[in-house]
């Protein structure tokens, strides 16, 4: 059982359609067991749902209304607290189920390590998988203080699984010297500091391929998103991230799944981070899955 069958929490705005009739499934991954600085992202998925109630159902960016899309909010997964390995296995199994059922997975984290099992599931299904990674941090470490299961390792693991030449990172402004050396020498694509402009240059090269997109909310400057576990000064604005999401939507690439991670409500009493995240998710719902 992946979810509490008695789950009765708030769903993402208009996300109350049944699983069977929906082609998009939203699911929360409330895991923050490996964070290296400030925990709390396990509360992110539900807070993003609560913030979504303030959204308009219509997007002027996409010129679409949420009533035009069929999506189901499954709630938060029942992950065994403190057991990262078992939690990752459960997330992978659920992602595999969604893929088998023909659903578009849209995950909400949780720490960034939760992206790794979804990519493993995607890799089993799709040949020539590419990954777009939007983040402040490189996440290219092999381990953190001896622990290979860490929120600082998912993109390194992804490179080793699908090949670094198939990984495209944007907005990176923090990491060990060795991480940046690996990016340079391995053949992966890394755009430092900026997102929208370099992303637009890359998107035409990804047409015809399955693409998974992962967004860490800390790509935003802390002025726009203070509610995250590892805030990093010098980030992009909410406007630029919206521009990037729109660029992906209008590019014609085949996005097969996505996630948004690292919203950590305890550090943002104003809820501006959750409010921004809910808007980004609305745009992802309306713009990324195949019509």
From TrEMBL:
Classification via CDD domains: Agmatinase-like_2
Which pathway is this protein engaged in? Amine and polyamine biosynthesis; putrescine biosynthesis via agmatine pathway; putrescine from agmatine: step 1/1
Q: How is the cofactor bound?
A: Binds 2 manganese ions per subunit.
Question: What is the reaction catalyzed?
Answer: agmatine + H2O = urea + putrescine
PROSITE patterns the record matches: ARGINASE_1, ARGINASE_2
- GO molecular function of the protein, one example? agmatinase activity
Its needed co-factors are: Mn(2+)
For this chain, the family text in UniProt reads: Belongs to the arginase family. Agmatinase subfamily.
Task: State the protein's purpose.
Answer: Catalyzes the formation of putrescine from agmatine.
Protein name per its UniProtKB record: Agmatinase
């Amino acid at each position: 059982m992946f979810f509490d069958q008695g789950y009765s929490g708030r769903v993402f705005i208009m996300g109350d359609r049944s699983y069977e009739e929906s082609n998009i499934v939203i699911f929360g991954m409330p895991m923050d067991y490996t964070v290296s600085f400030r925990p709390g992202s396990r509360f992110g998925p539900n807070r993003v749902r609560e913030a979504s109630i303030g959204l308009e159902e219509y997007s002027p960016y996409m010129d679409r209304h949420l009533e035009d899309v069929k999506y189901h909010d499954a709630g938060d997964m029942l992950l065994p607290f403190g057991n990262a390995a078992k939690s990752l296995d459960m997330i992978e199994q659920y992602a595999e189920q969604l893929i088998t059922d023909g659903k578009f997975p849209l995950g909400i984290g949780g720490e960034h390590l939760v992206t790794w099992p979804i990519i493993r599931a995607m890799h089993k299904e799709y040949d020539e998988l590419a990954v777009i990674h939007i983040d402040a941090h490189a996440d290219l470490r092999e381990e953190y203080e001896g622990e290979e299961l860490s929120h600082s390792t998912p993109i390194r693991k992804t490179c080793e699984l699908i090949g670094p030449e198939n990984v495209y990172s944007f907005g990176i402004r923090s990491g060990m010297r060795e991480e940046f050396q690996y990016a340079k020498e391995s053949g992966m694509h890394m755009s430092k500091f900026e997102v929208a402009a370099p992303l637009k240059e890359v998107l035409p090269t990804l047409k015809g391929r399955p693409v998974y997109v992962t967004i860490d909310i800390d790509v935003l400057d802390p002025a726009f998103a203070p509610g995250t576990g590892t805030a990093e000064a010098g980030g992009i604005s909410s406007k630029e991230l919206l521009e990037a999401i729109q660029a992906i939507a209008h590019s014609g690439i085949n996005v097969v799944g996505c996630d948004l991670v690292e919203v950590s409500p305890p550090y943002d009493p104003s809820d501006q981070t959750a409010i921004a995240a809910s808007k980004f998710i609305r745009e992802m719902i309306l713009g990324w899955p195949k019509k």
